[in-house]
Amino acid sequence: MRLLLVSLSLLLAAQAWARLDQEHKVEDPAYGEVAYLYLQGDYFAALTRAQMALERGEVPHHRSDLQVLLGAMYSAYGMPEDAEQVFSALLDTQVSDGVARRAWIHLASLYYRQGKYREALKTLDDKVGRPEAELAEIYYSLKAKVLMRLGRYEEAAESLDAFAADNPLNAYLRYNLAISWINGEHPSMGQEWLWQLANLPPGEAETDAIKDKAMLALSIYMLRSDQEERALEVLSAARAEGPFADESMMLYARALLIEEQPGKALPALQRLDQMSIQRPAVQEAQLAIPLLYDQVGSQKRAKAGFETAISRFASLDDYLEDLEGRIASGEWFAEMVGEPQWSTAMDPVPPFLPQRVSSFPTFYNWFATAGFQQGWSQYHELMRQQNLLSLWQQKMPALGNMLQAQERKQRAMRPEAQALLESLSHQDFQGRLTRLERRYQEALKDNDPLPFATDEERRLWQAQQEARDLTGQWGDKARPDMNEKLDFYRGLLLWEMQEDIVPRQWQRDRALKDMESLLEENRALRSRVLYAANRVERLDHFNQELPELQRMLAELQQRADSLMSRQQYVLQAEAVQHLARNRQRLRRFSAAAHEGLADLVYRSLRTSRMPAEPAPEEQPAQPEAIQ
Amino acid sequence: MRRVVIVLLLLAFAPLQSAELDKDLADFKREVLEVNKRLLLLEEELLFPADTQVGIYVSLDVGHFFEPDSITLELDGEVIASHLYTEKEVRALRNGAVQRLALANVKNGGHELVAFVTGDGPQGTEIRRGVNGQFEKGHGRHFVQLHIEDDESKQQPRFRFRDWR
After folding, report:
1. Interface ipTM above 0.90
2. Out of B21, B51, B139, whose CB is closest to A566?
3. Subunit contact A56:B41, Cβ cutoff 8 A
């Protein structure tokens, strides 16, 4: 049963996310990360990550998808009010049809969990209509469940026909519907559906469990409706292991006894006799064995059987009385919980291992109920949160140290950074670049090659200028060809500089652009340094946040303790109630065993006191005398 | 006598408690989630400031030809993460979810990533691959994805790192 519940929850989880064999669609890493935790059923970690992603704006592409997921997780995590709030807020905004349909389906599912069946159905009919293929499974299964709750079984059957028959969820719902029919207006239809379920091909544990359950229900119905032979046929095919093996065996024995085949019933009862007396079917078998011996005339064995039954019932009653004491003292609960091993703060809830307690067979049926599972998961979830809170408490000094280290670092770096910024602000890089650019533009406009000359050319140009000035001072003493030669060299130098002026200009233009981009980078770096140097509010905020969080942690730890105790008391009270019912039944069995024994002794005494008649040769053998 | 009193108290206590307990539990969970979120944000901000943070993610698309078993990740020659996959994790990846494999601090500039991946390939064959990738860390948080995808033409998985900003 538990396997079935787990598989159902996983199936529903997968459907809420809904990606089957498709290309990768995740565009925001945070959304994919939330889904990774969600699909593993770790709602607490997934919810935390989703809240972080929404707060930091990490989901620009998947914001509405994440909100649907968030609502579904709140709902599954036992926070219905938060779920409703998320869905209502989401549906009030402009979202795509696909997102809206998913949100409506989850909202309808929430109504169903809250017992608002009419609202759930209205939402499914009016808001969702006909769902697309990827939502069909969750839509039709939910609709079938709602319709069943409303007693509209025919429509529920139609909904179940609308999605995959080989799905374990479908089988589970069909089982529920078949039981409703058997107990209602269409017992023959219920029988037919149970027959189909009982004949499903064997497969996974959950499929086998549903097969066993259907087989059991079918045989009970057959025994009730005087179809003993068919019941025997069904029960003879029942598995001798699995969660329903003892009940199947007991029913089989009962059917054989009704059919007056005590010889065949005895092995089944003896096999049951080997199992734990805490199981109800075994207790019933204890009573059935002496009755069967009595029926076949073996009074000696019948007497021994009754005496064994009385003794075993008495010792079981003592055990249950002692168990009641251990439940009341909390010892039993502590034994059940054990010592969970945690490795990280976000560890999932540890697996439920009730087998470790000796009272497991007594509470076997109760452990399989949704009520127990919910209470137990809540207790473990509280344990996990308590563990998480204490881990955070342990980390608080380290966080404080890290914060102080960052403060120290910032205090040391800030003056240095401010001095650097101050010195940079006097450099006037941008002004210098602008002046260079202006000179470049002027040189282009004037077609002046000199600004693009190499150092050597500039030196020659300078030398030529100086020589010209010098010869100018000589006056008439200067040789006439001297000026001509200098003009010639000047012309030659100009010609050389003009020859490749375009590549020279281009190179200079590129250098200016490089400087522009370097200056841009420098501006970005300066703004980051400026931001970091003046970012005191971040550390101030952390300084305020840390003590407040510490106070909240302490307060939450106290509340966790109180809630754990309350949840424990609820479970213990249910265990006591279950035990009381068990003991009541046991007392009835014990009374029946005493009555059977008394009746046997009485009959035996009467037989022994009756005057002996000569036995004719054909007369059947007398029953065994009791010693 | 004491035991009887306790049992009676338990029986009287249960119906009174269970009605209010669900609501109190929901309130408690809401507050724990809030505190946990604030603490994680604070811790991440202190340990991995946005300016130096790099997150490495793993995705599986669609996974016909590969089922991961383990991944070891090196950043600039240092092992920063190792992970063994459970059945549930593989199922989540196959369904399109994304795993955050590591979060690290790096300086601005070029960095090298190497991943050693093992797992089951087509027909259960064992696959061991080394994957190389480079990324250029700039201003702000940086995400890198180790993308495992199906190569239909070769009927084999294909592994590559890609920037995910």
Report:
1. yes
2. B21
3. yes
